[in-house]
Amino acid sequence: MTETPELYEQLEYDVNPLYEKIISDLIEKKYSVIDHFFEQNEVALLRDSLLEKYEEDNFKKAAIGNFTNEIIEKSIRGDFILWINEEEKGEAEKLFFNKVNSLVEYLNRTCFMGILTKEFHYALYPKGTFYKRHLDTFQNDGRRKLSIVCYLNSEDWKPENGGELTIYFDDNGREDQVNLYPFPGRLVIFESQELEHEVKAVEVPRLSITGWLKTR
Length: 216
Ligand SMILES: O=C(O)CCC(=O)C(=O)O
Ligand SMILES: [Fe+2]
Description:
There is one protein chain. By secondary structure, the chain is of the alpha+beta class. The chain has one domain (about 15-215): q2cbj1_9rhob like domain (Jelly Rolls). It is about 25% helix and about 30% strand. The strands form two sheets. It has a seven-stranded antiparallel beta sheet. The longest helix is centred in the middle third of the chain and has 21 residues, at about 90-110. The chain is globular and about 55 Å long. The relative contact order is 0.21. The model has no long low-confidence stretch (mean pLDDT about 90). Bound molecules: 2-oxoglutaric acid and fe (ii) ion.
């Protein structure tokens, strides 16, 4: 019998149980929650980087709509954001992209997801702000495939702080929801074109990185 080792080599990969869990969650329920995706010291590094840039006044009021038609609408979303340029990254951002890229490579290799580009921004929700229920593709970007949120809050995030990410999903024809607190190091990943979600009002500043994996 003749073998084709080159082909086997291409298809071979080390199975990563964490990534496999994410994939099976996505297939089963269109979202996945991974606690401690980033370790405490990594979260601290990223939080410091966010706060430094925020204090330097680099953040801007998040808008809704697309680039040519940006509307700042406080009654819809109240967060401040700063896009992260992967080329100009510092130590914290390098660490962030290393982990994200490893996940993306795995998704492409094992699921043929065809993720070609990605975009991420820091976000800070000041006290009293929220983001009303929406679908991430309302930004007129049908290329957004998976939404990723990673929380950079300090360890003691309490329920009375509010700021849950509420994801709405269909349960056999009935709408159900899951409420997720923005615990530090927690990563939430969900199908951008499928799941509506919202950020409940926060009582203390809420820190995160949000981004999208895109097909083109
Ligand atoms: O911060 C979150 O939990 C979600 C943010 C979000 O939905 C968005 O930026 O589109
Ligand atoms: Fe969103």
